[in-house]
Each structure stands twice: as C-alpha cells, then as structure tokens.
Design goal:
By secondary structure, this protein is of the alpha/beta class. It has 14 helices and 17 strands. 33% of the residues lie in helices and 20% in strands. The strands form 4 sheets. A 7-stranded mixed β-sheet has the order 3-2-1-4-13-14-15, with no helix packed on it. It has a 4-stranded parallel β-sheet with strand order 5-6-7-8. The protein has a 4-stranded parallel β-sheet with strand order 9-10-11-12. The longest helix is centred in the middle third of the chain and has 18 residues. The two termini are 33 Å apart. The structure holds zinc ion.
Length: 433
C-alpha cells in the first residue's frame, strides 16, 4: 500500500510521533500510527520532518565566483556590482553551468530543493540566461529552479536592457525582475516599475524586483510597486526583494505604506545575511541594521519569506546554502526570539517561500509531493538554534541525500561518553509535555 513509511516524525506544526506514508512520488497518508508496512521504512525517532527549504532569492549566475577577477575591497554593494560588471564579459556558458551545478549539490545536502534565482540580463549575449536555462533542465529531477530576468545595470539606465530582458523572457525565463533604485533618477525608477509590471501583466508572469535595497528613506519604489500591482490586477504575484529602505523610513509614512502593501498582497523577501553585511555602510555610529520591518509586515498579514541571496560571490564571501543560517540571522536582526516568533521565522524559510514562488504540491498534507527532510533536531526552534545535519533529504519519495547525525565522543571521566547537542535543550512548558 506504501513504498516508504517515515515513522515517529515530529512535524513543524507541533504534531509529534506521526507516521507519513508515501506512495510513488506523493504523500499518501499522515497519521498517528500507520498499521501497514512498506518495503522501506525510516524511523525518524522523534526528529523534525519538514517539507524542504525554499530559497526565494538567489543569484546562481554569480555563485562560487568569489575572487574572480578580484576580491571586493570595500565590501560594498556598489563595488560588488562594479566587480560583477568586470567579470561578466569573461563569463562562459560552461563555467556558469559548472558553478551552478556545484551550488545545487550543496543545496541538496542542506535540504534546499526549491530555488528562485535572478539571472543578470545586462550582457546582450545572454550567456547567463542560456546557462541557467540549461541548469534548470539538468537539476529538474532534484531541484525546482525558477529564473528571474534581472536587469542588474538598470532597465532604463543600461543601453539594450529593455530588449535583452524581453529576449530572456522569450527564451523561457519565468519571472520579471527589476532594480528601480539603481535607475538614474527616482522618476526613472518609478517608470521602470510601471513598464515591468505591464510586461508581467501582458505575459501572465509574476514579478520579483530588487526594490529599495538602500538606506535612503526616500527610496519609495515599493509604494509604486504596490500601486502598479493593484492597477494591473497582479495581487499576490508580485515580490519586493530586500526593501531595506523601509528600515530607515519615517514611521508615519510606513503606517500608510504597509496597509497599501497588504492591499496589493506583496510578497516580501528580505535577505538578512546580505542586508546586515551591505547596508549601513555610510553610517558611522550608530550603524543601521538595514533589515526591513519583518515583524510589522508579518503582523499586517503580509507574506514574508527570506532569501539567501548570495554565496561566495562579488557581494558576499560567506554563505553555505543553508537556509537555517538565514533564519538564524533573521531571528537576531528582527529581534524575533519568542517561541511564536521563531515558528514564524521557520515558516518564512518553508511554507511562506513556497507561496511566494507559487509552488504546487508543497507541504505535508495527503496528496502533496513526497519532498521531505529529516533534521537532527526535535522541532523548528531547535533547528533554527543548531542548524543541524539533514539526516535524510527525500525528493518525490526517494532518498537523494543524507548526512549522519553529528555526535561527539567525550573523553572526560564521570561525564557522558557521547554528546548529541540536539538533546540538550530544556523542555519548555509550552511544548505540552
Ligand atoms: Zn539579490
């Protein structure tokens, strides 16, 4: 009756010791104790079983290019963009494909099976697009890769960008991108938002813009993006990535802006690792954090999901493909350390991102795709605290990766012989135990 049963699973919603029956590539049953047997059974032993991580904002054309052709000396966003401009003419399809595939290997080990990647369309050769379309096909058996046509040097500011972006969409790129704060003027930025939303409406595509990635409180393109969303009837299909200027905006203005964003059903995508690294660079002290208003946006009912953005590229020399590292940083930057807060942060790495990316069949309900990860942690709070090993990564009912549990041998008289850090958290009264 089942091909695979996972037993004794703790689920992100708090259900514990549940069995999950898988038939073919779908979840066929989720129940307290499944009586049937299956040819393959995995005992999760009270560990967290979650749908896979989803990264709604990444740059797979730049990843793992760190040091090419040189390192970012100032560490700023603008030098990163300049550096990428130096590297771009030398890019080859083969090298792009190779680096992207290597990153996808890393992603799978971390249980990251859905990625939305921006693809720079500034070079009229569109070698980046050709390469990432090839990668999208190659990784399809194990990663759902969604591509965004991203005019890195500006839609109006860069000659040929309008044509190149449209050609990229013709070639099969999935989402319309933009970068209004990088256009020459505020009004050019607003015009680009209008033009790109119009393209999306005409082509029936979603939009995901790098929007207001600056400390300038007057960078208000998100307001225009929300307005155009409503005007073109694109509610729920538009994402505003970064939105860091909201950190520095006047509170009164924000009290008007957030309801407008809610009306437009904007998907909000902060990138905590990159935001804390790149924002506030013109500040002496105090230095702003640069993260958008995560708590307030969530409380207003907006769908917030976090992106990894960069891993070892011109903008960010660190990163690991681990979305729990992203969530860990988000907890600190947004100061969302309460129990309910941290559950919301876990959702922002999984179900919220799946909603942003319009992924079908995602989740743990009967009939969903059998895409699951087993973590060396009891629950989402422990997962965020420990960034634990992914004991098993399951894609469409098949185990495609696994890491043994992290257990340390302790050689101290009178103390335990082995230590597994995932068993050390005090049990909280709210855990219902
Ligand atoms: Zn980005």
């Amino acid at each position: 009756m089942f091909d695979l049963i996972i037993r004794n699973a703790n689920l992100p919603d708090g259900r514990s010791r549940v069995d999950i029956g898988i038939l073919g590539d779908k979840i066929a049953e989720v129940a307290a104790a499944i009586e049937a047997t299956a040819p393959e059974e995995i005992d999760a032993t009270g560990r967290l079983v979650s749908p896979p991580f989803v990264d709604p904002h990444f740059h797979m054309d730049a990843t793992l290019s760190l040091g090419l052709p040189r390192l970012n000396r100032s560490g700023t966003l603008l030098e990163g963009i300049a550096l990428w401009g130096e590297l771009r003419p030398t890019l080859t399809r083969e090298a792009l494909v190779e680096r992207a595939l290597r990153y996808c290997d890393l992603a799978v080990t971390q249980g990251l099976l859905h990625i939305r990647s921006h693809v720079d369309t500034s070079d009229p050769r569109l070698v980046t697009v050709e390469a990432l379309l090839e990668v999208r096909d190659k990784v399809a058996p194990y990663i759902d890769l969604q591509l965004v046509a991203f005019p890195q040097d500006g839609y109006f500011r860069s000659p040929g960008a309008v044509d190149a972006l449209n050609r990229a969409l013709d070639m099969g790129v999935d989402v319309v991108g933009g970068i209004p704060h990088f256009e020459r003027t505020m009004s050019d930025g607003a015009s680009s938002v209008e033009a790109l939303c119009r393209i999306a409406a005409e082509r029936g595509l979603p939009v995901d813009m790098h929007c207001d990635e600056t400390d300038d409180p007057m960078s208000r393109h998100i307001e225009t993006l929300a307005k155009e969303t409503i005007r073109f009837g694109l509610q729920g299909r538009i994402a505003g990535s970064h939105l860091t200027s909201m950190h520095s905006m006047d509170n009164y203005y924000v009290s008007k802006l957030i309801p407008l964003m809610a009306e437009a059903e904007i998907n909000v995508i902060p990138n905590p690792l990159i935001n804390i690294m790149l924002q506030g660079r013109h500040d002496t002290y105090p230095k702003r954090r640069g993260l958008t208003r995560v708590r307030e946006l969530m409380e207003a009912g907006l769908n917030v999901s976090f992106g990894h953005d960069c891993v070892m590229d011109p903008w960010y020399s660190m990163g690991s493909g681990d979305m729990l590292e992203v969530g860990h940083m988000a907890i600190h930057l947004a100061q969302m350390a309460g129990i309910e807060d941290r559950k919301k942060i876990f959702d922002a790495l999984t179900v919220n991102s799946a909603k942003t990316m319009e992924i079908e069949g995602y989740g743990l309900d009967r009939g969903c795709n059998a895409d699951l990860i087993i973590l060396q942690a009891r629950d989402p709070l422990e997962a965020l605290r420990l960034k634990p090993n992914r004991l098993a990564v399951i894609r469409r009912g098949k185990v495609i990766a696994g890491t043994p549990a992290r257990v340390t041998e302790l050689r101290i008289d009178g103390r335990p012989q082995v230590v597994d850090g995932s068993y050390y958290a005090p049990v909280l009264p709210t855990d219902g135990v």
